[in-house]
Specification:
Length: 186
């Protein structure tokens, strides 16, 4: 469902993107080309800052927002999801937040008020809050990172983990094409 926010902003979805009919996109949201947005995802840009303005939530080209993901932002702050990035099932990305290109965010992870650098991997059930994850870092499953100082114990991404992230991105690009092909069947 595509709907306006109270300010009147309407999502802009590139014609090559696929948004599942059960997903909700509300407000100042920009979805770029070949993006997959899965069932029951919610992407909502509707809160304003003290001056009544808001930055958009932008989903970069070739990215995938999987089933049950919630992306929202506090007080008009922006959220940017880079290109070829995967946000896995039931994750929460709450702005202000910037997720770089070629990033993998694992199942049930939470990102808030943070930046995740290009090529990083945040594994399942992790929390990243109030810090800047440098490019190419791996955050293991069930890890909580709440400051830049805590990043000293985080291990770099291995080639195997990068390959997995790339395969998820490729699989979801195929889903975009497949669902676009059969869109009139449901």
């Amino acid at each position: 469902m595509i709907r306006r926010n109270p300010n009147g902003d309407l999502p802009v979805v590139h014609e090559t993107a696929f948004v599942d009919p059960t997903a909700i996109l509300c407000g100042k949201v920009v979805v770029q080309q070949n993006v997959f947005i899965g069932p029951y995802a919610v992407i909502r840009a509707d809160e304003v800052d003290d001056d009544g303005g808001m930055d958009p939530i932008v989903i970069g080209a070739n990215s995938n927002i999987q089933d049950g993901v919630v992306i929202h932002s506090k007080a008009g702050a922006g959220v940017t999801i880079g290109e070829s990035t995967s946000i896995a099932h039931r994750s929460i990305v709450h702005g202000p937040c910037r997720v770089g290109d070629n990033v993998f965010i694992g199942f049930n992870s939470v990102l808030f008020n943070c930046e995740v650098g290009d090529g990083s991997v945040v594994r399942h059930n992790s929390v990243v809050e109030g810090c800047h994850v440098p490019p190419g870092f791996h955050i293991p499953s069930t890890t909580n990172v709440h400051s830049d100082a805590e990043l000293a114990r985080v291990v770099r991404v291995t080639t195997d983990q990068t390959d997995f992230s790339e395969s998820v991105a490729q699989t979801n690009l195929e889903l975009v094409r497949g669902y676009k092909r059969i869109r009139n069947e449901f």
